[in-house]
Amino acid sequence: MRKHHIWQAATAVIAMALTACGPTSSATPSTSAAAQFPVTFTGPNGTSVTITKQPHHIVSLSPSATEMLFAVSAGSQVVAVDEQSNYPANAPMTKLSGFQPSIEAIAAYTPDLVIAADDTAGLVHGLGALSIPVLIEPAAKNMDESYKEIEQLGAATGHVADAASLERKMRSDLSAIVASIPKQAKQLKVYHELDDTYYSATSATFIGQVYALLSLKNIADGATAAAGDYPQLSAEYIVASSPDLIVLADTKCCHQTLTTVAARPGWSSIAAVKTGQVIGVDDDVASRWGPRVVDFLRVLAPHVKQLGGAA
To answer: Residue 195 region, left (φ>0) first, then alpha (ψ -120 to 50), else beta?
Structure first.
């Protein structure tokens, strides 16, 4: 379970690297809020995919895309999702893998559209040979990219207006959360824990940008450049950094809590441990770039307010 948790982070890095190699996915501009087909998208590698008519047999191999599809009212068009797409509860989860996709297994669902976060194992070519369009929606690096993917999925599924409505609500909710936090007397430091071997995420990642919305200083940014966007920090470095807030995105994979963190040698001296500002969050909510980022910020905001008031 722990290896898979880090694998998710590594896959996000690969997806972001692919994004950097070519144009960002973009839908042909729509002149109205009504569904329009055909619609053409340009993928991360520069290739185009055209969806000729509204799809009704969608297979999603990306948990974030699955959440977005249901949030834009396209859930009834989804016939299968990968083994990691565990939200919402009514998503038709299968044994399909987004990490090691099987062309034969995917094709068995007779999809008229497949959505994935990465062109892994020749996915696009393999399904293209069967005339099945594949839309690649890579890991978002910030909220703007998340909104863009919501817009794209709305256009791809015939739910342009629903996608626009969702985006407006997300923007409004996030703005309200950020506005509710008073200006801090000092910049608070945060440590985001991916697993109990101290893998973390820098500000170059989507989750890092979420912390930036709250004006938090990410201690992972102090890791060496060679460490990448998801560095493995040392216990000594974390203790010395003494973050004001510790966010545990390993409550499911590694069963971490305030109690287990406080029991780590030397960690009792960390500011967040002293004040009890060690927050356990749902691993999935903290690793996906879909609509539930609003829920994630709602969990963080009260703690940031409390710390800011105590500063």
So the answer is: beta
Residue type, 103: I
Pairing of strands 58-60, 78-81: parallel
Instruction: Note the pLDDT tens digit of each residue in 37-53.
Output: 999 998 777 778 999 99
Are 57 and 71 in contact by the 8 Å Cβ rule? The answer is no
Residue 258, token pair as written in the block: 């305030």
Backbone angles phi, psi at 279, to 5 degrees: -105, 125
Cα-trace Rg, the chain: 20
CB crowding 230-260: b at 16 or more within 10 Å, else e? bbebeeebbbebbbbbbbbbbbebbebebeb
pLDDT tops 60 at residue 61: yes
Q: How far is CA 169 from CA 26, 87, 175, 181, 294, in A?
A: 22, 20, 10, 19, 10
3-state DSSP assignment of residue 297: helix
Using CA atoms, how far residue 277 sits from 56, 232, 252, 270, in Å, is 46, 22, 19, 10
What residue has token string 């834009």? 72
- Could you tell me the two tokens for 238? 């974390």
pLDDT at 34: 59
Using alpha carbons only, give the angle 70, 281, 190 rounded to the nearest 5 degrees.
120
